[in-house]
Design a protein that fits this description.
6-stranded parallel sheet, Substrate Binding Domain Of Dnak, Chain:A, Domain 2, 18 strands, binds iron/sulfur cluster, about 45% helix, alpha/beta, Rossmann fold, binds FE4-S3 cluster, 18 helices, globular
Length: about 550
């Protein structure tokens, strides 16, 4: 079989090895070569920007470009060849402008030159992609770091949209990108860098937590409607709270409702967003069900971040989907940002002439158990642990996905003893958040902290309990059974490892990018393992 591309950055890597002919996600070999080239350009930009900084030059523009660039490379975020083609030229132009003191005239020339060079580069993408690192273990550990960086920069980008940045995260991102090209580094050096990536994962998630809670208020226990109203609506997906706030504001008098999909569900937990009475409810489930759910929704759909499932020729909702920010697909319309504002009027007008959504379920689900809310309930929680009503917490954060193997998580949640509580965050929750697992003395058995980045909340809860019980984080009655799919889950995992959490189960498979030696290192050092059967795992963990 001729290799046309090489990508193994997500859990769906073909045969749990790599996508080499076509991406399971829909990424084509051409798009893959653009992405490989762009990644290479970002690494080069990091080298030049770092040197420019040491020479006293201002490099914020380059840092922001690297941050958004890595975010764009996340699985299922952007399927638009043209976006990557122009990003490659922009990256090269930015790099060259840092090398020389350019006037605007010369800048124009450089852009033309950069785009010519970009086309040449793409033809050679194979020589700069993943397989250009010959040593299997170095390749593996470099992939852990770059996937972690993608997750980290996504969270940093969300914080930045709300006015928060951390220059240390920029410095680290550059340092790590430079290290990824340094052939003098050993496996031991890279292991240190993996740990540091996790450390910045914690810092990045803490920053986003601060940005979200300062801007939109502290998440509160909330009951979210999963049925539908009579008015037409807009369905908004992805992780970007700034976009949903803007959409809510622009649509408040339009006679339509706003529904969340997948990772946008936790928007309902924020007081500032709850004030909009037309934030009606959540429609459907996780990202991979979008084909049927977008069809029955009837109204337009807005993607603010991953996960997009590329439409096929017969996809009937194709003309009703819009993307913005770092998402894109050539079949979908893109909403640009101009002077910090996005104009959603076209989507709102389209919604007005749409039919109301078809009901696919009814009732409510409960969420909003971020660290502030849980710690408000701390006395009750601790009391229930001490009197034996709660025997164990199981962290089941992470991603959902289309692999049939993932029904394991539904079964696992269903079979857990009734004196256990599931702590969750990310779209993984859709595997069990509608199971009606009951409560323990009023505390629901599934506590949803929010989006995948809110896994930070789960870490804060664990650290607080360790403090209360005066024990090591690994001696708490908490087990970890994390589901992963894309790169944000990788940074969540690295963050947990950095906090010293051991015995994590990762599934439904271990990442394809772990070589045998690197996997063994993680198993030996952190007692990381993958899932087996529900019965065996429950026996082992509980
Ligand atoms: Fe394959 Fe995942 Fe890469 Fe897509 S992102 S090409 S599914 S490994
Ligand atoms: Fe989900 Fe894509 Fe990972 Fe944010 S939306 S958790 S998969």
């Amino acid at each position: 079989m001729e290799r046309k591309m090489f990508c193994y950055q997500c859990q769906e890597a073909a045969k749990n090895t790599a996508c080499e002919v076509m991406g399971v996600c829909g990424k084509t070999p051409l798009l893959s070569s653009y992405m490989d080239t762009f990644k290479y350009v970002l690494k080069g930009l990091a080298v030049v920007a770092d040197e420019a900084m040491r020479n006293g030059q201002e490099i914020l523009q380059a840092d922001l470009f690297i941050m958004e660039g890595l975010f764009k490379l996340i699985t299922n975020a952007n399927f638009d060849d043209d976006v990557f083609k122009s990003s490659i030229s922009e990256g090269i132009a930015l790099r060259e402008s840092l090398k020389r003191d350019l006037d605007t005239m010369f800048d124009t020339d450089i852009t033309t030159w950069a785009s010519e060079l970009a086309s040449e580069f793409v033809l050679k993408a194979g020589s700069v992609g993943v397989m250009s690192t010959i040593d299997e273990d170095i390749r593996s550990i470099r992939e852990i770091i770059i996937t972690g960086l993608m997750g980290l920069t996504a969270y940093h980008s969300h914080a930045h949209k709300l006015g928060y940045i951390d220059l240390e995260i920029f410095n680290f991102t550059r340092k790590a990108l430079i290290a990824l090209q340094d052939n003098s580094l050993t496996l031991t050096d890279y292991i240190g860098l993996v740990d540091e990536t996790g450390k910045y994962g914690v810092i990045g998630m803490a920053l986003l937590d601060k940005a979200n809670t300062t801007t939109y208020g502290v998440p509160k226990i909330s009951h979210v409607n999963i049925g539908v109203g009579k008015r037409p609506g807009i369905l908004i997906s992805g992780h970007d709270l700034h976009d949903i706030k803007e959409l809510l504001e622009q649509s408040k008098d339009a006679g339509i409702d706003i529904y969340t999909h997948s990772e946008m569900l936790p928007a309902h937990y924020y007081p500032e967003l709850q004030q909009y009475s037309h934030l009606y409810g959540n429609y459907g489930s996780a990202w991979y069900n979008q084909k049927s759910e977008f069809t029955s929704f009837n109204g337009p759909i807005l993607f603010t971040t991953n996960c997009i499932v590329p439409p096929k020729g017969d996809t009937i909702y194709k003309n009703k989907v819009f993307t913005t920010g770092n998402t894109g697909h050539p079949d979908f319309k893109f909403i640009v940002e101009s002077n910090g504002k996005k104009d959603f009027s076209e989507i709102i007008e389209l919604a007005k002439s749409s039919k109301a959504p078809i009901e696919i379920e009814s009732g409510t689900i409960v969420g909003g158990f971020g660290h502030n809310q849980v710690l408000e309930l701390a006395d009750t929680v601790i009391e229930n642990i001490k009197n034996g009503s709660i025997k164990k917490f199981v962290v089941m954060a992470g991603c959902d996905g289309r692999s049939p193997k993932r029904s394991y998580y539904t079964e696992f949640a269903r079979e857990l003893p009734k004196d256990t509580i599931i702590l969750t965050a990310g779209c993984a929750k859709f595997k069990y958040n509608k199971l009606n697992l009951g409560d323990i003395n009023g505390i629901p058995r599934v506590l949803d902290a929010g989006q995948c980045n809110d896994s930070y909340s789960l870490a804060v809860i664990a650290l607080t309990l360790a403090d209360v019980f005066k024990c090591d984080i690994n001696d708490l009655p908490i087990a970890y059974n994390i589901a992963w799919y894309e790169q944000k889950a990788v940074i969540v995992l690295l963050a947990l490892l950095n906090l010293g959490v051991k015995n994590i189960k990762l599934g439904p498979t271990l990442p394809a990018f772990l070589s045998e030696n690197v996997a063994n290192f993680l198993i030996d050092t952190f007692n990381l393992s993958t899932i087996s059967t529900v019965e065996q795992d429950i026996r082992e963990m509980i």
